[in-house]
Structure to design on (604 residues):
């Protein structure tokens, strides 16, 4: 088991290496010369060349990549071209809103989607199943910002129940926090719910065709015990896997959701950085999101033994 | 179609056979018809009573929908109906081009990885790395590098989709390689290119067609997202994403400027997804029962 964990953690190193190489190349090949920007309009070619040398920009690709990776390992993600602040600091400032939105959405989506999938599998072919499957197809088809605007139009403008946009920290009270969180969570969570519900249903149907389910039913075990105790437990591994993979949808969706609902998080920061072509910030955010995604899927892999004792490493 | 707790598979098979084709594959019919309608709108855009979608008219700004302006006019006085109709062209073209590009590239990489251990080791590490960057972010990153143009948007979205196709093709190749008919072909000394062409390639077509529809659907959404956050097609090209992005500032007073293009966008993606689901069910009865 321990050997497996170590091997699995080591296996993420080449993956992160490819991500780092890609993200570094993004900055390396980005248009515009940072030295010329720093030197300013009144500088001579000599000034620019001197700044290039002092920043190490004249060094070959692999040397610069090495220095860059070394800096990142020490927590230095570079400096924003626009605000001149360290990227790590900027990310730190925006972390709270994004983490709040992601965790609320994750918890909401999982707790809605799994019961939906279980119900659909239990009543497979019935009207509950049809509604769940229809929702799943719609959830995959309606883009997150469309859901966002429809929700704003209905619940914030027409009905005036909830705020149009904005973010309130949880430190200012739970209810103000939640009021601002409801619509973004619904918008961001829809595709995630569709994905998890669909996978739950499929995994449940697979398990429910097994002999031990027939045995459990035949010996008169209560339906809820069969569904939750036997079927769902055995369907847990594919469900947990898709929850992990789906985090990619969540991360992509956060960028858009924060723009629609004016939430001051990392997604909003990414969009601003793109419009200003602030490459170090874009780079830092992508690196961080990818790292989080890799770590989450690593944890998912390692959690398999918790859900299925038959899996032993 | 009644499925019981005990045997969900068998009853679906027995009742499914007797119904007419179009009823069994209702989602192909509905998805196909909706998609055909959207393609027709895109192709026939100039014939549908549209005006120049880029024509500015400052004195006719922000008109409500009327007989003359079916969907009203936007903040620059442009006819929203014409813009939405022409927007179908960009979305469908991006969806189709990305699907084609990603499938061809993924097919090539997948076949290479499936038949050469060295290429497999290197290529799949690169694909793993690319797949660990959420695809929307990858496309955003690539667009930040280049200028806004149709080709760049297509390339950026396609690159983000290639790893998934590569994995799919590779897994098909690896499972086929264990099949007796491929082993037999290897045993009688058939050359590798011929095995790939005659035995492997035909078996990748069905899953690839299904995958291509899903890629097209997600590419259309990604294009709209890119345009929406200002990293997509240039504002001069009317796309649903661009129209929605332009409507943001005045959403509270003119919500239809966002809701109408959003509706077209969602219906198009829904049509392609229905088509994909239906084709998956038709091409792979084993999977059909699961999802």
């Amino acid at each position: 088991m321990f050997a497996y964990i170590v091997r699995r953690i080591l296996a993420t190193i080449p993956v992160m290496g490819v991500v780092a190489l890609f993200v570094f190349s993004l900055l390396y090949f980005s248009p515009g010369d940072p030295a010329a920007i720093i030197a300013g309009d009144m500088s001579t070619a000599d000034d620019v060349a001197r700044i290039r040398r002092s920043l190490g920009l004249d060094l070959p690709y692999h040397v610069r990549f090495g220095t860059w990776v070394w800096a990142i390992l020490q927590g230095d993600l570079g400096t924003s071209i626009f605000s001149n602040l360290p990227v790590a600091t900027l990310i730190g400032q925006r972390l709270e809103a994004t983490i709040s939105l992601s965790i609320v959405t994750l918890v909401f989506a999982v707790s809605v989607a799994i019961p939906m999938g279980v119900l659909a599998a239990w009543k497979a072919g019935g009207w509950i199943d049809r509604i769940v499957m229809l929702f799943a197809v719609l959830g995959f088809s309606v883009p997150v910002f469309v859901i966002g605007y429809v929700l704003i139009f209905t619940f914030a403008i027409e009905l005036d129940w909830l705020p149009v946009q904005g973010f309130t920290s949880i430190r200012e009270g739970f209810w103000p926090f939640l009021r601002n969180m409801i619509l973004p969570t619904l918008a961001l969570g829809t595709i995630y719910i569709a994905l998890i519900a669909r996978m739950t249903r499929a995994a449940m149907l697979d398990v429910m065709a097994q002999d031990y389910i027939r045995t459990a039913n035949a010996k008169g075990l209560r339906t809820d015990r069969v569904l939750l105790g036997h079927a769902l437990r055995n369907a847990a591994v594919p469900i947990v896997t898709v929850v992990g993979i789906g985090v990619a949808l969540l991360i992509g969706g956060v960028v858009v959701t924060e723009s629609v609902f004016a939430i001051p998080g990392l997604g909003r920061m990414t969009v601003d950085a793109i419009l200003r072509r602030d490459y170090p910030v874009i780079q830092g955010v992508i690196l961080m999101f990818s790292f989080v995604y890799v770590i989450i899927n690593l944890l998912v892999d390692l959690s398999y033994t918790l859900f299925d004792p038959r899996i032993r490493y | 179609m009644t499925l019981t707790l005990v045997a969900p598979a068998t009853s679906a098979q027995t009742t499914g056979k007797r119904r007419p084709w179009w009823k069994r594959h209702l989602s192909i019919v509905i998805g196909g018809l909706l998609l055909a309608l959207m393609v027709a709108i895109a192709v026939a855009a100039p014939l549908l009573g549209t005006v120049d979608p880029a024509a500015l008219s400052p004195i006719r700004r922000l008109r409500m929908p009327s007989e003359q302006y079916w969907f009203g006019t936007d903040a620059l006085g442009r006819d929203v109906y014409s813009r939405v109709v022409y927007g179908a062209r960009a979305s469908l073209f991006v969806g189709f081009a990305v699907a084609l590009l990603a499938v061809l590239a993924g097919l090539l990489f997948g076949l290479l990885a499936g038949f050469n251990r060295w290429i497999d080791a290197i290529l799949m590490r690169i694909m793993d790395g690319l797949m660990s960057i959420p695809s929307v972010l990858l496309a955003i990153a690539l667009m930040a590098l280049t200028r806004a143009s149709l080709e760049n948007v297509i390339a950026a979205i396609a690159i983000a989709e290639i790893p998934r196709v590569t994995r799919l093709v590779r897994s098909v190749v690896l499972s086929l390689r264990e099949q007796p008919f491929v082993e037999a072909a290897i045993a009688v000394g058939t050359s590798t290119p011929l095995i790939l062409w005659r035995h492997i390639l035909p078996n990748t077509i069905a899953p690839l067609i299904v995958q291509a529809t899903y890629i097209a659907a997600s590419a259309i959404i990604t294009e709209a997202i890119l345009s929406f956050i200002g990293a997509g097609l240039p504002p001069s090209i009317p796309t649903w994403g661009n129209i929605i992005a332009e409507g943001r500032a005045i959403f509270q007073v003119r919500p239809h400027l966002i809701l109408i293009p959003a509706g077209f966008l969602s219906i198009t993606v829904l049509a392609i997804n229905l088509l994909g689901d239906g084709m998956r069910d038709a091409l792979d009865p084993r999977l059909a029962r699961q999802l």
Remarks:
- Residues 176 and 260 of chain A are 19 Å apart (CA to CA).
